[in-house]
Automatic annotation (TrEMBL):
Pathway: Cofactor biosynthesis; NAD(+) biosynthesis; NAD(+) from deamido-NAD(+) (L-Gln route): step 1/1. The keyword Cytoplasm does not apply. Residues 17-257 form the CN hydrolase domain. The lineage of its organism: Bacteria, Pseudomonadati, Pseudomonadota, Gammaproteobacteria, Pseudomonadales. This is Glutamine-dependent NAD(+) synthetase. Its EC number is 6.3.5.1. Belongs to the NAD synthetase family. Catalyzes the ATP-dependent amidation of deamido-NAD to form NAD. Uses L-glutamine as a nitrogen source. The gene is nadE.
Length: 554
């Protein structure tokens, strides 16, 4: 069977084949740098692992997602130069890489095979996704044909990411004689994603009687985190090899290729707890955002509350304590417990810790505002002023010392607007932006199970913004156990108000929460980006109008 885009399949007898999965982190837009990483990794895979084939992630040459960089006039030229450099690099092993390629006037998300200094095969992704965080149809055409390429004497079917989730590409390659399938991925992390990948690969490999090599990107790009977890399933649907999540590396697997390509099984890493998995995602997101954008350090407000405590722990684990600065900014409503606990955590983690009272600045602002405020009653204006003064302090330290300000708001707060524009929302990156409050508590307990750095009463006492006397979060919000369930149904699963009430929630609570979500879209639009860990984060995932006459209900 002749397949467009393929090289002829030889009748060479099959043999042992070593494939190395290059689970790596690339920088979007750095085409020369990414090309150098590919060359270095391929040569190392050959020298250290005697690789026959080295497989890299989707669009590794540009990094993923390159977004509108793909529209730049020089993109084609830069990719062409990278491919020429790869062909002249004297790489002994065959390599399979991801790159954007233009053909017939259209741009395609492609897999490219380079062997013995020549491009011996290419494949155009047939199902570019256009949902959730994906916007590939803005840039890429739909490939039309399967590609079965002779690599090292073995017929290999090529696919790219979404192709394996759709019917057609794997099936067509298997029907065309592929002994194994190579699938290049840039699959973003969310909770439960690895389990869904495994179920899919098990079914696809078993139904089509082919082994599947699934190579995924690792690292972070803006709010997206890529967790790696590259895998190989054999033709019976059995997991043979699994690389660890959130770790770069070269992971070899041997195939005995006769009628099938049967991989040799290796021990798989232990399945991490949900909390450990999410925590690693947050650490990866912070580390890559800070380092790839060239920040020397980070600074954050440490309040003595649980959100800033978890944010500090993540930042310190991601960057090292020497690159983290925490600032306590007490006011007349700040409790002694908060002061004690903030200092205790800072000491336990060995980070730079400063205390600057905002009382004098607040009094100065209020003196200036005395005339226009005359005759009015104190309200949230005065509360927000405290938050905004703290934002000014942190941003000033950022400007002076080149530190990135980490904000500390969680997903529950962002959803209902329990935050202050130009106050606690002022900063460059929100570590917990997609983490519901109930999960924040679980992350705190998890981090303390590794080493006790967060004082226990930070986790156990009722949350408070401490912007007013005896203030508690639950004075103005439903309990977080209820709030997070309502938010999950409305924000992540698109339930209507009536459908949420039908799940057993109080009508008044549901109406109030939905109204808060809807009217605070303008705040979220101005919020810093943060690590995405759910299937529906605020930002790329959920795009609602600010100005809207939509009424909640059925």
């Amino acid at each position: 069977m002749s397949v467009p885009g393929s090289t002829p399949i030889s009748s060479t007898s099959y043999r042992k084949l070593r494939i190395v999965m290059a689970q790596m982190d690339f920088l979007v837009g750095d085409i020369p740098g990414n090309t150098g990483l590919v060359i270095e990794a391929a040569k190392r895979a050959q020298s250290e692992h005697e690789a026959d084939i080295v497989v890299f992630p989707e669009l590794c040459i540009t990094g993923y997602p390159p977004e509108d960089l793909l529209l730049r006039p020089s993109m084609d030229l830069r990719v062409s130069e990278a491919l020429e450099r790869l062909q002249s690099a004297e790489i002994g092993a065959a390599i399979v890489i991801g790159a954007p390629l233009r053909s017939g006037g259209l741009l395609y998300n492609a897999a490219v095979v380079i062997e013995s200094g020549k491009i011996t095969g290419r494949y155009f992704k047939r199902f570019p996704p256009n949902y959730q965080v994906f916007d590939e149809k803005r840039y890429f055409g739909d490939g039309a044909d399967a590609a079965v390429v002779n690599i090292c004497g073995v017929p290999v079917g090529l696919t790219v990411c979404e192709d394996i989730w759709s019917d057609g590409p794997v099936e067509d390659s298997a029907a065309a004689g592929a002994r194994l399938i190579i699938n290049l991925n840039a699959s973003p992390y969310d909770i439960g994603k690895q389990a869904r990948r495994k179920a899919l690969l098990e079914r696809k490999s078993r139904e089509n009687r082919v082994s599947i090599v699934y190579v995924n990107l690792v690292g972070a790009q803006d709010e997206l985190v890529f967790d790696g977890g590259s895998m190989v399933y054999d033709h019976s649907g059995t997991l043979a090899v699994e690389a660890p999540q959130f770790i770069e590396g070269l992971f070899p697997v041997d195939f005995l290729c006769d009628h099938h390509c049967q991989p040799a099984s290796r021990p798989s890493p232990a399945v991490p707890s949900l909390e450990a998995n999410v925590y690693n995602a947050l650490v990866t997101g912070v580390r890559d955002y800070v380092n790839k954008n060239g920040f020397r350090s980070v600074v954050l407000g440490l309040s003595g509350g649980i959100d800033s405590a978890v944010t500090l722990a993540v930042a310190s684990d991601a960057l090292g304590p020497e690159r983290v600065r925490a600032v306590m900014m007490p006011f007349r409503y700040t409790s002694d417990i908060s002061l004690e606990d903030a200092e205790a955590q800072a000491v336990a983690m060995g980070i730079q810790y400063d205390v600057y009272s905002i009382e004098p600045m607040y009094d100065s602002f209020m003196a200036t505002l005395a005339a226009p405020f005359e005759g009015t009653t104190p309200d949230t204006t005065e509360e927000n002023l405290q938050a905004r003064i703290r934002g000014i302090v942190l941003m000033s330290l950022s400007n002076k010392f080149g530190s990135l300000v980490l904000t500390t708001g969680n997903k529950s707060e962002m959803a209902v607007g329990y935050s202050t524009l130009y106050g606690d929302m002022a900063g460059g990156f929100d570590v917990l932006k997609d983490v519901p409050k109930t999960l924040v508590f679980r992350l705190a307990w998890y981090r303390n199970s590794v080493s006790p750095v967060i004082p226990e009463r930070v986790i156990t006492r009722p949350p408070s913004a401490e912007l007013a006397p005896d203030q508690k979060d639950e004075d103005s919000l439903p309990g977080y156990d209820v709030l997070d369930q309502i938010l999950n149904l409305y924000v992540e699963r698109d339930f209507s108000a009536d459908a949420i009430v039908a799940e057993g929630f109080d009508q008044a609570d549901v109406s109030r929460v939905i109204r808060l979500v809807d009217i605070n879209e303008h705040k979220r639009r101005q919020a810093p980006i943060g690590v995405r860990i759910t299937e529906r984060g605020f930002g790329k995932d959920r795009r609602y109008p600010i100005t809207s006459g939509w009424k909640s209900g059925n």
